[in-house]
Amino acid sequence: VGVGDRCLSVMQLKIVRSKPHEEVGDRCYEEGMYEAAKLLYSNVSNFARLASTLVHLGEYQAAVDNSRKASSTRTWKEVCFACVDGQEFRFAQLCGLHIVIHADELEELMCYYQDRGYFEELISLLEVTLGLERAHMGMFTELAILYSKFKPQKMLEHLELFWSRVNIPKVLRAAEQAHLWAELVFLYDKYKEYDNAVLTMMSHPTEAWKEGQFKDIITKVANVELCYRALQFYLDYKPLLINDLLLVLSPRLDHTRTVSFFSKDAMQHAAESRDAELAQKLLQWFLEEGKRECFAACLFTCYDLLRPDMVLELAWRHNLVDLAMPYFIQVMREYLSKVDKLDALESLRKQEEHVTEPAPLMFDFDGHE
């Protein structure tokens, strides 16, 4: 008969009387005689030790039941981890429900799952716990971070439902590391970091820009310069919506600077188009609107597209000859430079024509030179 069998038989016959059952049970547990330990712990109703013993016997359901009777976080953890090691994730989840509600125990539980690569099972556990009465910020935060790494498609929905219950700075870092730009904008908005939200949308428009959200947030930025950057962004990315943006930004924009901003853009467009007629019409429009500085700037931006005689006529009619004088000085300098080059070429040509040709040798009829 084996040692374990002899020990069990003696206990059943109640021969062992010299030591308390619990102490004998501990000795059997340490020696790996789990059946004996199970009987002893059952007799003394030591549910915590009994639960530990049962997982060694593979009796996970009974281990969970006794953990519930023991009502000890330590026991729940021991049984939970044993279930994870045994890949009994349903029972591990039942135990985990009693662990994650303690904020100071959450990290150890998560590490145990993650170190063994059980990310899906950990996510499932945390998803189940969100409805618990004692659910705390750490649970919502850690689930958001797990989503950012392993199920990014679920993160935005999670944030929309529970953004007020997550640690936003911590989740912000996770979203940025995962390049989840739409989620990052959402969190910046909720955290009232409007400048960063706008910058993120302009830097990653394909993933992060939404018209209504952008117009709502841009009105709240602290740095007014972002309003002007937003104008340029719309001109480049959504030019047909620029009027809608101007409507919401008009209370914060300096109108003179805004007009200059668009005038500069119009001049640049005309210059790049290489369309002389367009450049001339733009110059005339500046005069009709009384924009003298824009008129002067356009002379140089569209310099090679404008006819000097037309510019002179417009400047004379609007009493802007003095303002246009730098332009005419430049035109005159170029003309004189061209004339000087032509004169130099002409002089060279004449010099070549007057080069003395060698006289031919003459001979008389007697054959003498």
TrEMBL record:
GO terms (BP aspect): intracellular protein transport; receptor-mediated endocytosis
Annotated CHCR repeat ranges: 1-92, 97-243
Pfam families reported in the protein's UniProt record: Clathrin
GO CC terms, sorted: clathrin complex; clathrin-coated endocytic vesicle; endomembrane system; extracellular exosome
GO molecular function: clathrin light chain binding
Stored InterPro entries: ARM-type_fold (IPR016024), CHCR (IPR055358), Clathrin_H-chain/VPS_repeat (IPR000547), TPR-like_helical_dom_sf (IPR011990)
PANTHER family to which the protein is assigned, alphabetical: CLATHRIN HEAVY CHAIN 2 (PTHR10292:SF6), CLATHRIN HEAVY CHAIN RELATED (PTHR10292)
Protein name (database record): CLTCL1 isoform 4
